[in-house]
Amino acid sequence: MHAASIGDYRALAKARLPHFLFEYLDGGSYDEVTLRRNVEDLQSVALRQRVLRDVSAIDLSTALFGKKWALPVGLGPVGLSGLYARRGEVQAARAAAAAGVPFTLSTLSGCSIEEVARSAPLWFQLYIVKYRGFVSDMIARAKDAGWGALLLTVDLPVAGTRYRDFRAGISGSIRGPGARSWQVMQRPEWAWDVAVRGRPMTMGNLEKLLGSNAVLADLMSWVGKNFDATVTWKDLEWVRKQWDGPLVIKGILDPDDAREAVASGVDGIVVSNHGGRQLDGAKSSARALPKIADAVSGRLPILVDGGVRSGLDVVRMLALGADFVLMGRAWAYALAARGEQGVAHVLKLIDAEMRVAMALTGCTSINQLNEDILEKSSNQATF
């Protein structure tokens, strides 16, 4: 298949990845209500088509955290993406750098901070876990590697329950390593390219804790035991003392939490429900975004993720109040299907689709994308 859309890349990723890895990437928590809402609510936002405007010169560039980006789009953190393709995070980082957009490395990566940092200046996503020495070490390593921003994920005091992971044999299931090995055998192309040619396969940033021979089950066990339910806003002060670059809070869905973030002095927030992987039944990012934008009132940059599957979706998010948009599954599907080339192609698709959407709504620059380009129809009354 020649992929023409992110949906096509999803199908290709499903055909190439071992079943348990695809389920980990594609799934959400419980019955995946919020996962579906992220996509459906965003796609329901109707754009207001305008005509007879000069849209011959469209500028997609924007500035964020003291740097100009070619698109108002970045690659958000996706756990284990180093396993979706050979040295996957490195390939994705190279594609992002070539396109002039940021790449965010997950704490739960397959490749280490230092390995990925050799590809381009990047952002790092961090969790505060019970072992604070590990957190301090991660911050120091990101600092030493010259990473441009720290995205602190705060919506994971406990891990959400994901039925797909259980059924696929990743977490809590009686299906053991043998089931995963059988699934790998069904995907010989992936096994040769990633499991053999991609060695050493480790848990990246957690290698010092888990050892070089750790397997996926070891990572899931560590996650379950080490996420910290005691974390509060006061812990931000502790992080800030160690990190002097842009500090962004990821996982905001409530306007009151957005106001608290402003008061805490962070440099940005990410409106996010963790891709529908935490609290099932929570609002979609698209529905949460407008009220948060009103609460923040331009006092800090608003980033957003959740359900972005096209350049049209990027335009919608910007019109709903975001300053910058992060993609997660969209680029990870492409990485799994076609590696660096796939990620580069997705970014080109986003660019092209944004240009069409902007031209047909009469906009020529990112700062023109606001609520004026949205239809005020009854089905959007809650946005």
Please tag this protein with its features:
383 residues; alpha/beta; eight-stranded parallel beta sheet; 45% helix; globular
- Helix count? 16
Order of helices and strands: HHHEEEHEHEHEHHHHHHEHEHEHEH
Strand fraction: 5-15%
Question: Largest beta sheet, briefly?
Answer: 8 strands, parallel
- Main sheet: which strands, in order across? 3-10-9-8-7-6-5-4
Please identify the oligomeric state.
Answer: single chain
Mean pLDDT: 91
Inertia-based shape: globular
Structural class based on helices, strands and sheet pairing: alpha/beta
Strands, count: 10
Regions with little confidence, pLDDT below 50 for 5+ residues: none
Distance between the termini: 37 Å
The radius of gyration is 20 Å
Helix content: 40-55%
Task: Tell me what you see in this structure.
The protein has about 375 residues and is of the alpha/beta class. It is about 45% helix and about 10% strand. It has 16 helices and 10 strands. The protein has helices at about 5-15, 20-25, 35-45, 90-100, 115, 130-145, 165-170, 175-185, 190-195, 205-210, 215-225, 235-240, 255-265, 285-295, 310-320, 330-360; strands at about 60-65, 65-70, 75, 105, 125, 150-155, 245-250, 270, 300-305, 325. It has an 8-stranded parallel beta sheet with strand order 3-10-9-8-7-6-5-4. Strands 1-2 form a two-stranded antiparallel ribbon. α13 (about 255-265) links the parallel β7 (about 245-250) and β8. α1 (about 5-15) runs antiparallel to α16 (about 330-360), α4 (about 90-100) packs parallel to α16 and α15 crosses α16. It starts with 5 loop residues before the first helix and ends in a 23-residue tail after the last helix. The model has no long low-confidence stretch (mean pLDDT about 90).
